[in-house]
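Researcher: I need the complex structure. Ligand is 5,6-dihydroxy-NADP. Inputs:
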Amino acid sequence: MKNFEYCNPTRLVFGKGQIAKLSELIPMHARVMVTFGGGSAKRNGVYDAVKKALQNHNFIEFWGIEPNPSIETLRKAIELGIDRRVDFLLAVGGGSVLDGTKLIAAALANPSIDPWQLVLRGRETNSIPFASVMTLPATGSEMNSGAVISRRETQEKRSFYSNYPQFSILDPTVTFTLPPHQLACGLTDIFVHVLEQYLTTPGQSRPMDRWAEGLMLTILEIAPKVLQNSRDYDLMSDYMLTATLALNDMIRMGVTQDWSTHMIGHELTALCGIAHGASLAIVMPGTMRILRKQKWEKLLQYAERVWGLEGGSEEERVEQAIRETEVFFEALGLATHLADAGIPETVIDTIADRFNEDEVLYGECRNVDGEVAREILRSRL
Ligand code: NZQ
Ligand code: ZN
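Model: Output:
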């Protein structure tokens, strides 16, 4: 096991009716800005619950943080925040609203730095305090310090690290209104988060391996049920908590991580607008196939412990595990090939060129460069 430090300061407030706790969780004297997406919070009653809880607080609202939050929109929120001397942010929505809010929080604490420069620097831990009411289980943003910000003008999508939310309220009833495509993308995103932290170097940590396998088995068990009945409280509670546990630093203690599937997926989103989870359903089977030699031991473990594959040769088990993964994404209703998602082949060269230009090296062995990314994507034609 590698050396590590673990400290996750986010207070999780979980369960039905917990949005009412906002009244005590946010300091009374705070000048609050509540950030929202495009309107789902108004349609499903979350907005009313937040407004009621904050009736004695001083707050303003910012609406319109879009999926894959853009710097263009966030600049407007930052201007408003500076103008109104906001000193506490509450994100109400999915990962996009919360990610955008993480950047707003950093920008408000660093008004002399251009917000896109903050993103390009990659890390800024000086920020004003922020918290969330998470309405979409997927990203884990409610209990991590990451954010992914897009720049529409240049079709870029970049990762940025800041602070953790002070608290996050997870009320599973707010997920009842999620449409099937968002559920499919969310479930895929969670599954791939676990794979990025699991399908790497073998034999590093038994507890991390077992924990990761437990989360994947949970997703496989609940996914078909979630698609059938997204109004079952206990089921949606399991879904919501699994999303948080998959990316709140807990399954990566002392182990190497990959993340190349995410970095390639971000490019597909930036260039073609495909939803985050949907991009991963295409790329992950390619990463598994192209890097199967490097990931061999872990693929065999994954085949046995997650898919229960024990018979046949090693080759057959590895191939079957990759195929099962693909079939799982397809059963959720997602495309696993570029053409099926309407993505043109030309995008492959663009992504490879970008990676080569930036001289990036992703993956647990730092060997995923433009050429490997090209191979991974070509295997998804
Ligand atoms: O905008 P509104 O109207 O709120 O609608 C949203 C949006 O259209 C809707 N929605 C959210 N909650 C709902 C709901 N609809 C009905 N009922 C509800 N309860 O869902 C749509 C998608 O929302 P979005 O926030 O974009 O989805 P998600 O949570 O999947 O976030 C995706 C973004 O997070 C980034 C992705 O790259 C992408 O930009 N990620 C962030 C990570 C992190 N912070 O650690 C890690 C992830 O790997 C990911 O990269
Ligand atoms: Zn993700």
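Model: Summary of the prediction. The beta strands are 11-14, 31-36, 58-62, 88-93, 130-134, 146-151, 156-161, 167-170.
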